[in-house]
Design a protein that fits this description.
The complex is a heterodimer of chains A (111) and B (113). Chain A is an all-beta fold and 111 residues long. Chain A has strands spanning 4-7, 10-14, 19-25, 32-37, 43-49, 55-58, 61-65, 71-76, 85-92, 99-101, 105-110. Chain A is globular and about 40 Å long.
Chain lengths: 111, 113
């Protein structure tokens, strides 16, 4: 099945810094999703992208749907301590409702 | 009100036991899912139900049996628990016209001793 390669796997940053992460696939996706998981909680949807080239913001978060439809990027600007968590990219496998997830990017923000 | 709720939050049991995890959603969604998250945080879908009908059944041991009494509930029963079943299990739901937008519960951490 389709696999998503997410990088980096972890980041340690200072409060106020910007963060970038990306996700790539060997095959085309028609939707890209970015989720955040806080410790002890389930993943929460941050941003959904539906069109190649689409750039969407949600507060300090900005995500882009790659032109090739095989990648997506998430940026967090001016990080704060509550940004700590694991960020996952996801997409529907074969266009179905079966979501395939990246392996996650663990973010640590030092105050 | 919690949108997708799972019980219990934690489950510690011995190998060979049978256990169930319950999930309820009050979002009015027609599709529900079970995911397994392993110790490396990798999330993988196990099952999905649409209006009580099984839609997705990944390569999961038949010791795992989902049951959907109605479209707001999807329970997961596990027979003869094994050490490798230890993981966090997440329930999720979505609505037909936006199946990719899935809402997750807080998870059930299962520890098999």
């Amino acid at each position: 099945g389709q696999q998503l390669n997410q990088s980096p796997q972890s980041m340690f940053i200072q409060e106020g810094e910007d963060v970038s992460m990306n996700c790539t696939s060997s095959s085309i996706f028609n939707t890209w999703l970015w989720y955040k998981q806080d410790p002890g909680e389930g993943p929460v949807l941050l941003i959904a992208l539906y069109k190649a080239g689409e750039l969407t913001s949600n507060g300090r978060l900005t995500a882009q749907f790659g032109i090739t439809r095989k990648d997506s990027f998430l940026n967090i600007s001016a990080s704060i301590p509550s940004d700590v968590g694991i960020y996952f990219c996801a997409g529907p496998q074969g266009g179905s409702e079966k979501l395939v997830f990246g392996k996650g990017m663990k973010l640590t923000v030092n105050p | 009100d919690t949108a997708v709720s799972q019980t219990p939050k934690y489950l510690v049991t011995q190998m060979g036991n049978d256990k169930s995890i319950k999930c309820e959603q009050n979002l009015g969604h027609d599709t529900m899912y079970w995911y397994k998250q392993d110790s490396k945080k990798f999330l993988k879908i196990m099952f999905s139900y649409n209006n009580k009908e099984l839609i997705i059944n990944e390569t999961v041991p038949n010791r795992f049996s989902p049951k959907s009494p109605d479209k707001a509930h999807l329970n997961l029963h596990i027979n003869s628990l094994e050490l490798g079943d230890s993981a966090v299990y997440f329930c999720a739901s979505s609505q037909g016209y936006a199946k990719n937008i899935q809402y997750f519960g807080a998870g059930t951490r299962l520890s098999v001793l």
